[in-house]
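Think of the structure tokens as a kind of shorthand, similar to the way a musician reads notation: each symbol stands for something richer, in this case the local conformation of the backbone. In the example below we present two proteins back to back. Begin with the first one, reading the sequence and then the tokens, and try to describe in your own words what changes along the chain.
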Amino acid sequence: MLENVSIFIIGLVASLLTGLVEPIGGLIGIGMVSIARPILPWGRAFAAGAMLFVVSDKIIPESHRKGFEKPATFGVIVGFVLMMFLDVVLG
């Protein structure tokens, strides 16, 4: 019985210690964002470029296989137009 209680206490302490790290990481993240605010647009542009590369290199060729060239191209065009429309309407 005493062994079960000690295992429970060890688990409780371990979970408390892992939970205490999260606010510290949040404060570090807030500090880094406030310091790096001028380069955030460049980071977002890099992430968008990486996503465009993945889509153009992997997803579009895969969708054009087996004779689905026209529906796949139409889907990409409709998706892009819808995305631009939502960007303008929602600001």
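Once you have a description of the first chain, move to the second and do the same.
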Amino acid sequence: MLILCFQFPPAIHNKDIVAILHLLVALAHHFECPHKLPGGVTINMVVVQKKGGILLPMKVVEEITAANEGEE
């Protein structure tokens, strides 16, 4: 029987899709998933900060899998 002792970060509980994708990839690596994950998977996000009553959008590229991950 396998018991996972893992404290989920608040982002997982807040249903942050990027955090959930990172968790799924980490689980696939940990349990040595027989399926190959594609390499170089990225997500383009827009992060908005509020400074002095003004919204400042920033474009951020988040890497989900490494560029060389799909290679053997």
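Compare your description with these statements about the second chain. Residues 10-63 form one domain.
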